[in-house]
Structures are given as structure tokens and as C-alpha cells.
């Protein structure tokens, strides 16, 4: 498997800045994100404090950042990252499409609104999963619940239906899910994951559903959920002035690293994180 020097998770201003700087320093990065770059930017009406771009609209800034990536030849890998594991001398980045490896990781994920369900973090890896494609074989012949925040979760729920004994799907979005007839669809809001040492049920506003596993398929995850062992600080990632986290080789920048939530601040921190990652890689080779 190819091992990249630097993987960057997130394609907002922080991630784009980090990707451009890494590329300029001779470390072409693996950039996870979307060609739309950032919903937050797309919805911005006016941005008046980005140097050199007075009174720019969000879509205009997005297009300028995307053009810069294209000019520098930095591709975007459009795969949802489900987990990042520190493996000692590298990081394993798990997606529904497969697993990638990188010597250093930069988290530019932004801020995820909402809190984990009660019981979610305690039972993670013991019945709670964020990737159906990755963990479905563990639930062959068992009962599972799937919580999807967008239609993007439907293919994973359909795959689970081929493996598990039963699948109950809880869509947290409007529209009729397109799923096999064997999948039960329930328009109820999950409130907690229940269990002692392993998952035993999913609680919703309509009652408790006895299951062996709960798959929480969100469009985005908080970095502290994404990376086991990552230290947080009041809902953000704890970083130092170099944007380094408590995990060697892991850096964070932008909104994920704390206030203020400003595009120019995010871009500056992305630059710092990339330079720090390059220095980290150089020190390892000495």
C-alpha cells in the first residue's frame, strides 16, 4: 500500500492552505474533502476581511481556492473519512472506499455541531461503528440499527442488509430512503445507545430497539471522535503554537483548533500546520 507523507482531512480554507503549502514544500498531500470545498463558504454572502479580496462572496472565494488547487495540481479525494488510527510510525485513515496510510495527518475538519449520543463514546468499538463497509462482517446474522444523516448513508445500510439478520434504518433527513424492502425504516430520533460492555439497544423517542450494533453514519464527525486518543479542549482539538496535537505527527488547524471562526485565521493556521508537518517528517529522517 502506498504511504503518503501528509494526509489532510478537510477542504475548507485551512485544508486548502495546508495542501498548497505542503505541495510547495515538496510533499504532495492526500487531501480528503469535496470539490465544493466547504458548505460554510458556499453559504457566505460577503467576506470583507480576507486580504487581497475585498468584499468577496463565499462562492467567489471557493472558486478562487479551487482554482489555486487545480493550478498546483492538488487533487481532492472525495471519500468520507470514518476513523484515523495512530499506528506508531504512521496513521491509518479508514474510509468506506478503503484504508489509506500517511506518515503525518492534518485535521482541518471544521466544527461539527451537536453532541455524541449518550453511550456512543463509551461503546465505540463495542457495538458502535461509524463505517458499515468496514465493520459489516462483524455483524453477520446479527441485528443492527443504522442512523443516517443524509442519503449518502443509504448504500452502506443496503450493504448491511446483505449481511445482518435485520436492519432498522433511522433517516435524519427528509425524503423517502431508497433501500431494499428488507430494511425497516423508522422516522424516530435516536436519543441514546444502551449497553453495559457491548451494545444492547438503541433508544429513540418511540422506544428501545434491541440490537447488537449501532452504525452512526454522519456526514461529518468531531475530530476527537474521528481520532481515538486525540485530546480535546472545550469542543475543539487541543493544539500548541505549531498546531501540533498530543499525538506525534498529528496536527489540527482552522475552526477545529478553536476560536475565532475566521477564514483568514483558518488559512494561516493551515500554513503553520503544513510547515510543522514537514518539519516533523524531516526530524524523523535524521
UniProtKB/TrEMBL annotation:
<dbReference type="InterPro" id="IPR050097">
    <property type="entry name" value="Ferredoxin-NADP_redctase_2"/>
</dbReference>
<dbReference type="GO" id="GO:0016491">
    <property type="term" value="F:oxidoreductase activity"/>
</dbReference>
<dbReference type="InterPro" id="IPR023753">
    <property type="entry name" value="FAD/NAD-binding_dom"/>
</dbReference>
<dbReference type="Pfam" id="PF07992">
    <property type="entry name" value="Pyr_redox_2"/>
</dbReference>
<feature type="domain" description="FAD/NAD(P)-binding">
    <location>
        <begin position="4"/>
        <end position="168"/>
    </location>
</feature>
<keyword id="KW-0285">Flavoprotein</keyword>
<protein>
    <submittedName>
        <fullName>NAD(P)/FAD-dependent oxidoreductase</fullName>
    </submittedName>
</protein>
<keyword id="KW-0560">Oxidoreductase</keyword>
<dbReference type="InterPro" id="IPR036188">
    <property type="entry name" value="FAD/NAD-bd_sf"/>
</dbReference>
Amino acid at each position: 500500500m502506498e504511504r503518503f507523507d501528509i494526509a489532510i482531512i478537510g477542504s475548507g480554507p485551512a485544508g486548502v492552505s495546508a495542501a498548497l503549502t505542503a505541495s510547495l514544500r515538496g510533499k504532495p498531500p492526500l487531501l480528503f474533502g469535496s470539490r465544493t470545498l466547504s458548505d460554510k463558504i458556499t453559504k457566505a454572502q460577503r467576506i470583507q476581511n480576507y486580504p487581497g479580496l475585498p468584499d468577496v462572496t463565499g462562492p467567489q472565494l471557493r472558486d478562487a481556492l479551487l482554482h489555486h488547487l487545480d493550478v498546483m495540481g492538488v487533487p481532492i479525494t472525495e471519500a468520507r473519512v470514518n476513523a484515523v488510527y495512530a499506528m506508531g510510525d504512521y496513521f491509518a485513515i479508514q474510509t468506506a472506499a478503503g484504508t489509506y496510510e500517511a506518515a503525518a495527518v492534518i485535521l482541518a475538519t471544521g466544527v461539527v455541531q451537536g453532541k455524541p449520543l449518550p453511550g456512543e463514546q463509551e461503546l465505540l468499538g463495542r457495538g458502535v461503528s461509524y463505517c458499515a463497509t468496514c465493520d459489516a462482517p462483524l455483524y453477520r446474522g446479527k441485528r443492527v440499527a443504522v442512523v443516517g444523516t443524509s442519503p449518502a448513508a443509504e448504500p452502506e445500510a443496503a450493504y448491511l442488509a446483505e449481511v445482518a439478520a435485520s436492519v432498522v434504518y433511522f433517516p435524519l433527513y427528509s425524503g423517502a430512503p431508497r433501500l431494499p424492502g428488507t430494511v425497516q425504516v423508522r422516522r424516530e430520533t435516536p436519543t441514546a445507545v444502551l449497553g453495559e460492555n457491548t451494545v444492547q439497544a438503541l433508544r429513540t423517542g418511540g422506544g428501545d430497539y434491541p440490537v447488537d450494533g449501532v452504525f452512526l453514519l454522519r456526514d461529518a464527525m468531531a475530530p476527537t471522535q474521528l481520532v481515538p486518543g486525540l485530546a480535546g479542549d472545550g469542543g475543539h482539538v487541543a493544539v500548541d503554537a505549531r498546531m501540533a496535537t498530543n499525538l506525534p505527527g498529528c496536527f489540527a488547524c482552522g475552526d477545529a483548533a478553536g476560536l475565532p471562526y475566521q477564514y483568514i485565521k483558518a488559512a494561516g493556521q493551515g500554513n503553520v500546520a503544513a510547515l510543522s508537518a514537514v518539519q516533523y517528517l524531516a526530524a524523523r529522517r535524521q
